[in-house]
Amino acid sequence: MESAEQLYLRHLDENIHIMNSLDIDRNQTEDFQSVYRLLMNRDRDTLFRIFRFTGTKHEGIPSDEEWGRIQFSWKSIIISASLQASIQRFTPMTMAQIFSLLFTIDDMAPAHFETGAHFLTDKMLALYASGIKEFDHISNPHVGKAIQLINSKLKSSRLSLKVVADKLEISSPYLSAIFHEEMDESITAYIHRKKIEASTEHLMFTNYSIQRIAEEYGYSSVTSYGRKFKEIMDTTPLKYRKNHAI
User: Fold this and answer.
1) What pTM value is reported for the model?
2) In terms of C-beta density within 10 A (0-12 exposed, 13-18 middle, 19 or more buried), how is residue 23 classed?
3) Is residue 16 domain-shared with residue 126, that is, in the same domain?
């Protein structure tokens, strides 16, 4: 299985080769390069316009050819922003979520164009904010490493306090105590929250069954996944899909 770093480099290499073969105008390239500044300024309107009007010039559902170009452009925007931000705000924790976002774009259909532009705008702003909130303000290095590990293993059914503590070579009680002190929630609650939040992308943009999504994020049954989803999102997976999917 490829590591997070290998996945990232592979996607970057693919996008570089495609970009070199396409006629991407200078203004569009400048748009890509401005995304990190928009994230810092929390300029949602301009960021949305970049996602919405990149790759197409008209309203309505894009053709298959246009859609392929839009998907490529969206991934290029995300990769460009993450590269600009990696030294400053984006951490290895959020990089794992960025890989997931690239695959989510691959799963989208042309009918998701408008919703996808809104989703990616809000997701990038949220990732930037989480990079500040969940990493920059953490004083204990063990907690920072735990967060990185958790966010890179969200689909593992074995992800738990003990697994993370063993990986960091510290005791479970100690990790539990320092994690709660830094994050104001238990490490188990954090794991489930991140799993459920990540799973919403599949509910929005794929036709995967609830069972498949539950299994993909390491839940033993639809019941356990649904119970945890309701606890965290205050709705059921089916209702969430109905309210957010096209």
Assistant:
1) 0.69
2) exposed
3) yes
